[in-house]
Amino acid sequence: MARYHRAVCRLCRREGQKLYLKGYRCYTPKCAMERREYAPGQHGQFRRGPRKPSDYALQLREKQKARRVYGVMERQFKGYYLRAARAKGITGEALLAMLESRLDNVVFRAGLVSSRREGRHLVRHRHFTVNERSVDIPSYQVKPNDVVQVKPASRNKRPLVQAVNAAGSRSPVPWLSVDLVQMSATMLAVPTRQGIDTDVAEQLVVEYYSR
Length: 211
Known about the structure:
The protein has 211 residues and is α+β, with helices and mostly antiparallel strands. It folds into three domains: 1-51, Ribosomal Protein S4 Delta 41, Chain A, domain 1, CATH 1.10.1050.10; 54-100 and 197-211, Orthogonal Bundle (Ribosomal Protein S4 Delta 41, Chain A, domain 1); 102-189, RNA-binding S4 domain (Structural Genomics Hypothetical 15.5 Kd Protein In mrcA-pckA Intergenic Region, Chain A), CATH 3.10.290. It has helices spanning 9-15, 32-35, 55-69, 74-86, 91-100, 103-109, 116-124, 158-166, 202-209; strands at 128-130, 133-134, 147-150, 176-179, 184-187. Strands 2-1-3-5-4 form a five-stranded antiparallel β-sheet, with helices on one face. The longest helix has 15 residues, at 55-69. The radius of gyration is 18 Å and the shape is globular.
């Protein structure tokens, strides 16, 4: 599966806000948005003043932001949209629920890793189990009552220990039950829009693909 290999800080600068793609670094003065708030590129800081963006520009930027927050490439993201469009209920909310149910996002929301990017890396290296079975697919869809846990042999890994120690400062999500001592999390229900704090206007994403 393709993935983004370039510097991720430029993605935040392009969207003009922090997307928290690098975990702890995003909360320190080393964050690129703290030092260079202008857009990336040779002419980023010399672009013309603010002008009213078109409807298409707003929809595109929102789609790109959502895709980058969850670390999903374009083809896969459109697949999520098509599945959400066929699902019952509101398409935008169904799309966010699918993205939140990804295994790399669940371990991030549970506080077992510091970022979704780190979650993807550790899932790929088989440090997690789902219902006591090893899973190495970051896009694996976690379902209600599934138990996600760090493998016993991996619990002393430094990134996992650091993430769990810092997890107490995070606000828990209502659709997960987390046991930081056992390094495990149980999905209680399908995520709803009220339980998702991602700063994304999902309706604009739906409008983009509905053109």
